[in-house]
Amino acid sequence: MTFEPKQTTERVLALAALVVAALGPVIFNDYWVDAILTQVFIVGIAAASLIFLAAYGGMISLAQTALMGSAGFMIGNMVTVGEGGGESKGLTLGWDPTLSLVLALIGTTLLGMIFGAVASRSFGIYFLMITLTFSVITFYFVGQVTIVSGFSGIGGIDRYTPGFVGDIVTDRYRLYYIALGVALGVYALIRYVGRTPFGVSLQGIRDEHVRMTSLGYVVPLHRMLAFGFAAFLASLAGILLVWWQGQIAPGDVGLGATIDLLIVAVIGGLGRIEGAWIGALAFIVINNYIRDSWLTELLDTLRIGGSFNTIIGVVFLLIVVLSPDGLMGLWDRAWSTVRRPRGGSGVTVASPAQHG
Amino acid sequence: MSRLSRRWKLILPLGVLAVTASVLVSTSIAASRASAGEIRVAIMTDCKGAFGFGYEIDIGGAQAALAQYAGGKVKNPKKPSAGMTGIKAGGKNVRIVGYGCGDDTVPTAVKETRRLMEQLRADVMIGPLSGDEAVYVARYAKSHPTKTFIIGTAGSQDPTLQLAQPNVFRYHGDGAQWNAGTGEIAYKKLGWRNAAIIMDDYSFGWTSAAGLIADFCAIGGKITKRVYPPLNTTDYSSYVQQLPAPDTVDGYFWVVGGTGTAASLKAFEQQYGALKPSQHIGNLFFAFLGADKVVAPKVVGSYVGGFGTGPGLKTRAAKAYEAVVAKHYPGLNGGNYADGFVYNYYNAAWALVQGLTKSGGQLGKALQNALPRTLKPGYQVTNNGVLRLDRNRQAIQDQYPLQVVKNGDAIGTAVVGYVPNVDQSFGGLFKKTSPPPGRTQPPCVKKSMPWQGKIKVVTNGVITNQTLK
């Protein structure tokens, strides 16, 4: 076994990050644990589903936010209770939370496969537009079909969790560890799937779909299944999201949220799965702190427009221009610059930027 | 790629990262600085979305009260969000830790509320601005009983009726209350017996429509058709098509907001010709929130539901309130201080100062117990100008139906009626256990309303003894 300094450094850093994450409630204050890091894990899972499709399948999907939200709306409609001071919005079916959880995961995966079946024969900008359409349809469906939500959304969902999850309303550390565990599971699962024959052939389709077709692979089926798998990952994020914020509303699947997730993925880097959580951390921390910063005040005084969106826009632009592979790409480049004789990475997959 | 450019492609992004990180670290250190014993207040409003224009107006309203009653020093009278220093109440320093920037959607309200209450560690929130946001804040309040929430301006019914948390206060009416009396005007002054209603398909649209429907039906009117276009519709022709034709109905109630107000009226004009003012009544979207420029000129002469304020009302308290706002923030909201955005945030902050004074600067339960159950705001006339909260801490407020009028070239509103003491329940129609307003809620029923037959005519801003006939 040869010694790979970069790989070893990454493993050490990953282990350190894991230790810090595991000790999160000891190291960080409650706000950081509950509002920042838990959210990072959840948004990271959704971004990972997007990056999986981009990195392994060459598909940049704008439907992941919609799929994430769909899982949230499904479980929200299924678990909440209307009677006796319960919720006033949604179907309020009052079903068993464990059953609802399973049904929401299956339902969203199937929805993803339907989306995937429609989009699987499209490439590049057409694929992007079709997935954007899914996102818009979902937004208007839940906003306008008021029986399932309406613009106010469904609340109180976090009160109805399965027995094995327990009380996450008062015990927020519990939700933190659940989100951390699911995030690790999702990371491991994507790494595993990427190495299976399915994952390898998916990467083949990403690089040369015409050649793969001539080799006998059913390209649309592969892409549809990949979309279904990504929808399953997004549904996990959706379930955690409704547990975390207690409710779900059309704004969670709106155009703004869709673009935000794409920005998270691009900032992190569309080439490596780890980028999902790095991007989520950067985005959420900037979102939380830049608003009250002197920089915002300065821009505001200069009448340049100091809103958070302006600053995140500039950061996004700089990253796209200077490091198209996001923060993970920057890391990779730093290594290759420092060590001219190149170091390898076991997990780098080709950038989707060239594949669209 | 040359070695130099490779370096720069690494150094530049790293530089950007370093600058961003240093800004964030310095901000987080600044945010965590808190001197002991100070009271931390957050003002939550919208800076984006349909009500984004209300940002400075809301903050100005709240801070005018803090300047007047708690010694706050205005930093910039033209820009309320520049902040305020020197606020003292209950013997303690009060610091405004942050301004929330919502966009009238729930997800942003979630993030902003948590940022203000947890990251910036506010003890009290004045806000939020819109209906759906207030529903979320009331849910949030349930799991944060030590924090206190005084709603800024929100028209949804749920926060103080279905949810009704003990740490949530609202010193103004909900969307239904604002429209009290308007149905009676349609019935008595315009002779309407059958009417159709077109309403935005979301919580504020439903609540506002509920006020018109309940009031009109209570006195004997019938709603023959309810049409509910989705929010942000651009082409209303198909919805106008669903409305009964003008010769089959006495009139129409319009509860369509934002850019939809003008668009829906235009679709109606295209379908049926020029609008006849006596056949159309709007909610506050006919006169407030920017409608004065675009919508009002189309409907001169039409009656309009109010906003809990009395524009042009010539009472001593109204003039005193307007003078206070003008003193601290001259020209706020174009000098239109009789706007719910200014008035409601003002009263919320004023109530907070009274509460803190009474509790001696104590927070949590002590403050919630000390927050006033009565207030003497500018446009309250009944009970010698004393506004009362009900047991859900929701205001029982006088309301003022309006009419769009033309004075020379200027188009504005005039108060036409004074509806005393409007409560949230509409004479028991809305209860904690009743379904909140919706597409078909409330049903159209004839019943007695506490203010029925007691509406006084207002002429030139003066409340007369004449009852509306």
CATH topology of chain A: ABC transporter involved in vitamin B12 uptake, BtuC
Structural class of chain A: mainly alpha
Question: How many strands, what sense, and barrel or not for the largest sheet of chain A?
Answer: none
Name the helicity range of chain B.
Answer: 25-40%
Estimated share of beta-strand residues of chain B: 15-25%
Brief descriptors of the model:
heterodimer; A: 356 residues; mainly alpha; ABC transporter involved in vitamin B12 uptake, BtuC; 15 helices; globular; B: alpha/beta; Rossmann fold; 2 domains
Strand and helix map with partners:
The complex is a heterodimer of chains A (356) and B (469).
Chain A: H1 5-22, H2 24-27, H3 30-57, H4 64-79, H5 97-119, H6 124-144, H7 172-195, H8 197-207, H9 209-214, H10 219-245, H11 255-268, H12 275-289, H13 294-301, H14 308-322, H15 326-338
Chain B: H1 3-32, E1 39-46, H2 55-70, E2 73-74, E3 84-85, E4 87-89, E5 92-102, H3 106-119, E6 124-126, H4 131-142, E7 148-150, E8 168-169, H5 175-178, H6 182-188, E9 194-199, H7 203-218, E10 222-227, H8 237-242, E11 251-255, H9 260-272, E12 280-282, H10 291-294, E13 303-304, H11 316-328, H12 340-359, H13 364-370, E14 374-375, H14 382-385, E15 387-389, E16 395-399, E17 402-407, E18 410-415, E19 417-422, E20 456-459, E21 462-467
Parallel strand pairs in B: 1-5, 1-6, 6-7, 7-8, 9-10, 9-11, 11-12, 12-13
Antiparallel strand pairs in B: 2-3, 4-5, 13-17, 14-15, 15-16, 16-19, 17-18, 19-20, 20-21
Structural write-up:
The complex is a heterodimer of chains A (356) and B (469). Chain A has 356 residues and is mainly alpha-helical. Chain A has one domain (27-354): ABC transporter involved in vitamin B12 uptake, BtuC (Orthogonal Bundle). Chain A contains 15 helices and no strands. In chain A, helix 8 crosses helix 10. The longest helix of chain A is centred in the N-terminal third of the chain and has 28 residues, at 30-57. Chain A is globular and about 65 Å long. Residues 342-348 and 350-356 of chain A have low confidence and may be disordered. By secondary structure, chain B is α/β, with parallel strands linked by helices. Chain B folds into two domains: 39-173 and 313-397, Rossmann fold (3-Layer(aba) Sandwich), CATH 3.40.50; 180-305 and 401-467, Response regulator (Rossmann fold, 3-Layer(aba) Sandwich), CATH 3.40.50.2300. In chain B, 35% of the residues lie in helices and 20% in strands. Chain B has helices spanning 3-32, 55-70, 106-119, 131-142, 175-178, 182-188, 203-218, 237-242, 260-272, 291-294, 316-328, 340-359, 364-370, 382-385, and strands at 39-46, 73-74, 84-85, 87-89, 92-102, 124-126, 148-150, 168-169, 194-199, 222-227, 251-255, 280-282, 303-304, 374-375, 387-389, 395-399, 402-407, 410-415, 417-422, 456-459, 462-467. In chain B, the strands form four sheets. Chain B has a seven-stranded mixed sheet. The chains are: A mainly alpha (356), B alpha/beta (469). At the A-B interface, helix 3, helix 6, helix 12, helix 14 and helix 15 of A face helix 1, helix 3 and helix 4 of B.
